[in-house]
Amino acid sequence: MIKENYRQVEQKICEACMRSGRERSEVTLIAVSKTKPVEMIKEAMQAGARVFGENKVQELCGKYEVLPKDLHWHMIGHLQRNKVKYVVGKAELIHSVDSARLAQEISKECVKQGVEADILIEVNVAEEESKFGICMEETEKLVREAAVLPGIHVRGLMTIAPYVDDPEKNRPIFRDLKKLAVDISRKNIDNVHMDVLSMGMTGDYQVAVEEGATMVRVGTGIFGERQYNIKES
Ligand SMILES: *Cc1c(COP(=O)(O)O)cnc(C)c1O
To answer: Ligand 1 atom closest to Cα of 217?
Structure first.
């Protein structure tokens, strides 16, 4: 089932690329494996999945330890500063940087470990109160603050769009994020590359690809519904 799902998502990404005149190679599919066991990840690997997204540090580290080292792990969830030390060196990309203090902590840890980290700035485009992320107006300021820190590189922007019944409703949000990335890119800030746009989830990734996503984060569409216990939800 997971293998079939993965291939179907692949297919839909291909189609969205064709519709928008893009190359399939421009878009990375991140299989969001949070809450799902290692066995299911192995099944996705059989279909070709190599990039996995997790939103909890402990879970990312646990899976990182037991799975083959040629996989790529992305930290996509809210990151607490006291947990930064565990993900640096393991997560290839941290999608969820939304404050200068967090960027500073990642930088500090990178310097300490003698490694480099790629980060995205998480933007709350929809300005939903329940969401993490910085507002659009403050994004450039945070990009500039992160750009001067040693050991880290700003690679682009990430957003979590609202949960909607019709994915078309999120198209303006993806457009806004793309536009913001282009605007910031034009400022030619040192140590800043705006080549990653992480946007689109199970419900809306095709629209996100049409609007320029270079990374889509698909969980349910590959692994099925998640079951949370009361504590986690
Ligand atoms: C869980 C999660 C996803 C995947 O959501 P689905 O709707 O299951 O595809 C994507 N991005 C982030 C940040 C998440 O936490």
So the answer is: 10
> Do strands 28-32 and 215-218 pair parallel, antiparallel, or not at all (unpaired)?
parallel
In a domain, 101, yes or no: yes
C-beta of 155 in contact with ligand 1 (< 6 A): no
- Note the pLDDT tens digit of each residue in 20-41: 999 999 999 999 999 999 999 9
Quick one: which atom of ligand 1 is closest to the CA of 30?
A: 10
Query: Virtual CA dihedral for 47, 52, 55, 59, nearest 10 degrees?
Result: 90
Residue 220 alpha carbon, nearest atom of ligand 1: 8
The CATH number of residue 192's host domain is 3.20.20.10
* Residue span of the structural domain in which 40 resides: 2-223
Ligand 1 pocket, 224 CB below 6 A?
Answer: no
In a domain, 233, yes or no: no
> What residue owns the CA closest to ligand 1's atom 4?
219
In the predicted model, is pLDDT for residue 184 greater than 80?
A: yes
Q: With a threshold of 0.90, does the pTM exceed it?
A: yes
The closest of 62, 53, 35 to 215, measured between CA atoms, is 53
